[in-house]
Design brief:
Blueprint: H1 3-18, H2 27-40, H3 46-55, H4 59-67, H5 78-94, E1 102-107, H6 113-126, H7 128-134, E2 135-141, H8 144-152, E3 154-156, H9 165-171, E4 172-175, E5 178-181, H10 183-186, E6 189-193, E7 205-210, H11 219-232, E8 233-241, E9 254-258, E10 263-266, H12 289-301, E11 305-310, E12 315-318, H13 320-326, H14 349-359, E13 363-371, E14 377-389, E15 392-402, H15 404-427, H16 432-503, E16 507-512, E17 517-520, H17 522-528, H18 532-535, H19 550-561, E18 567-574, E19 580-590, E20 598-607
Parallel strand pairs: 1-2, 1-7, 2-6, 7-8
Antiparallel strand pairs: 3-5, 4-5, 8-10, 9-10, 11-12, 11-15, 13-14, 14-15, 16-17, 16-20, 18-19, 19-20
């Protein structure tokens, strides 16, 4: 299997085992980040790395931290944030009636600097109390580790360098070298995991920030995400992108408000939105058993598959069409929905159910493909509707409308239209020359658009590489700071040891197992006339001084061969000034607990009587 095939297989393995779908990411950037992590653990091939992940599950966290580049800061690109603060947010607030809630979604929030920056912008315009009452900021990311850090709201001093001093003093509290966001700001931000590729978007949003996140995805995935952003925003909603991102291919969805600072307004289009659920409470239950039977019979006779769950997500009913379509049995009634394959096949119902519980609105999942047990393919339109009792969601009705026949009719209609177009083209043979000219112009226009998209893609790739380099630079800065601290500790220890040795009234000599001098203190220099830099690394028995080194050979060797024993002796010597002295010496082993590494020689010299 080729390396590219191994790489794709590794991506599928991550999606299957860890619910991280990276297939929508740009391959070049993804390969660079993954290769970086493989080199760190000493692995070259993707297949070998897949085996390594199976044996070392802790490696998943390190891999995701390497792939998900969390390069961000407070008020990143200050000019763009100033435009948002001075013009965009005030206009959003003016369009609201007093007291109306404001909803903000910060997608790809990393460690939280961006949503907290938005919170400070609203706090400056509304005040902290009204911020807490009116503004809800939903901050999402796929990196759980980054979300944990974001929820704490605690940052190092260097991470808050971009926060203006007035806001730093007003909204942060200093705590042991770190800065903690005040509670009123943290209460305005709600953090949660959301995968832009797979999960449903947050709806009814007034302001949506997604800065330098789209550039990691390829064009097809970007298009799906931008469509979801359009769905998520209110009619007058605003989209705020990063400096490397544009929406040249989505002029039908967003129009530029400020192209330089990447601010875009939502364009209203004729497209059905989510439908609201029933306005009033559900109909009361008829105690008559006959009527209950009639309702069940009517549900079973309905041509649309229906499954009903209660507030605890347990299946309470499934009509005949649903049982036939999904192979449900009477034993499945009463089971939690998440225990059934139906919860994720043919569509992810769990996130849609959670959305209904939060918003009490009908959710249109859209069309999905379903393969029957016999191999027949069906196209199903999935819709979830809340069942309300006194305004509370007490259950959810899930409808699976079979659209297969309609799609086949559409295909037939498309074929008929194709035939009609062919006949029309024959009738328009006299206009071929004009159409040819028009096609040439269209081709030229498409080439220009393609060139523009390629330039945009190149710009995104450069921005991605820049963020990777910035992330690496931050890692190197951290390592450098740790090295500086270790060096300072070593220097301090050396100064401390030097102070001790200088203050001793004895001559101290340390030798290794080959009798080469490793340490020669100040008192040794005074007594024997040789400087420390002259003797360090020299063979002790070759030194030429008043110290009779031959007297020390046997005691030192005895000390080296018998760990833990101290050898004492006395002998006469002559100092560098020619004075006769009596020397009391002792040899002690160095590092006896872990094996003898050398010997410490202590020499106490006293002037001989009459000298």
């Amino acid at each position: 299997m080729s390396e590219q095939a191994d790489f794709e297989a590794l991506l599928e393995y991550l999606a299957r085992t860890r619910d991280f779908d990276f297939t929508g990411y740009k391959r070049a950037s993804l390969m660079r980040r993954m290769t970086k992590r493989m080199h760190e653990v000493g692995i070259e091939g993707c297949a070998e790395y897949g085996d390594y992940l199976e044996v070392h599950p802790d490696e998943f966290g390190a891999l995701f931290n390497t792939i998900l580049i969390n390069v961000t800061s407070f008020f990143r690109d200050p000019e763009a944030w100033e435009r948002l603060r001075s013009q965009v947010v005030p206009r959003l607030l003016e369009a609201k009636r007093d007291g109306d809630p404001v909803r903000v979604w910060c997608a790809g929030c990393a460690a939280g600097q961006e949503p907290y920056s938005v919170a400070m912008v609203f706090a400056e315009l509304l005040g902290p109390e009204e911020l807490t009452d009116r503004v809800k900021i939903y901050a999402t990311d796929v990196d759980e580790e980054a979300l944990v850090q974001a929820r704490l709201g605690s940052y190092e001093e260097k991470e808050t360098a971009e926060v203006p001093k007035p806001q730093l003093e007003r909204y942060f509290e200093a705590d042991d070298g770190r800065y903690m966001l005040r509670k009123e700001l943290r209460r305005a931000v709600i953090f949660g995991r959301n995968d832009l590729v797979q999960d449903a978007p947050i709806s009814r949003v007034d302001l949506l920030l997604c800065r330098n996140t789209l550039m990691y995805f390829h064009a097809e995935t970007q298009e799906r995400i931008v469509n979801r952003f359009h769905f998520a925003l209110n009619r007058d909603g605003v989209l705020f992108l990063g400096t490397s991102e544009m929406l040249t291919r989505h002029a039908d969805l967003f129009r530029p408000m400020d192209s330089e600072h990447r601010l875009f307004a939502r364009v209203s289009i004729a497209r059905p939105r989510q439908m609201r659920g029933p306005a009033g409470p559900a109909a009361p239950v008829d105690p008559g058993g006959d009527r209950d039977w009639m309702r069940h019979a009517a549900a079973d006779a309905a041509p649309i598959a229906q499954v009903v769950i209660d507030a605890g997500d347990r299946v309470v009913a499934a009509n005949r069409e649903a049982r036939s379509l999904f192979g449900l049995t009477d034993g499945d009634v009463g089971r939690p929905l998440q225990e059934l394959k139906l919860s994720y096949r043919p569509a992810d119902l769990r996130s849609a159910v959670d959305q209904i519980k939060h918003e009490a609105q009908t959710v249109e999942v859209g069309e999905v493909e379903w393969r029957m047990a016999g191999g027949e393919k069906r196209r199903l339109e999935v819709r979830l509707t809340p069942l309300l009792v006194e305004g509370r969601v007490e259950g959810v009705s899930i409808l699976f409308n079979d659209m297969t026949r309609f799609r086949l009719l559409e295909d037939d209609l498309a074929a008929l239209r194709s035939d009609a177009e062919a006949a029309y083209e024959e009738l328009q043979s006299t206009a071929e020359e004009l159409e040819t000219t028009n096609e040439e112009l269209q081709s030229t226009n498409e080439e220009l658009e393609t060139t523009n998209e390629e330039l945009q893609s190149t710009n995104e790739e450069l921005e991605t590489t820049n963020e990777e380099l910035q992330s690496t630079n931050e890692e190197l800065a951290t390592v450098n700071e740790q090295l500086r601290q270790r060096t300072a500790e070593v220097d301090s220890a050396n100064d401390f040891l030097e102070g001790i040795l200088t203050g001793l009234p004895f001559s101290v000599i340390v030798v290794d197992r080959e009798l080469e001098v490793q340490l020669w203190n100040r008192q040794s220099e005074e007594l024997w006339g040789l400087r420390s830099d002259e003797v360090r690394g020299q063979y002790l028995l070759d030194l030429d001084s008043g110290l009779p080194v031959g007297e020390l050979e046997d005691p030192i060797r005895a000390c080296l061969s018998s760990a833990g024993n101290t050898v004492a002796l006395e002998f006469a010597a002559t100092t560098r000034r020619g004075r006769a002295v009596d020397v009391r010496a002792s040899c002690r082993p160095l590092g006896a607990s872990g094996g003898v590494r050398g010997a410490i020689v202590l020499l106490d010299a006293a002037l001989r009587d009459g000298a």
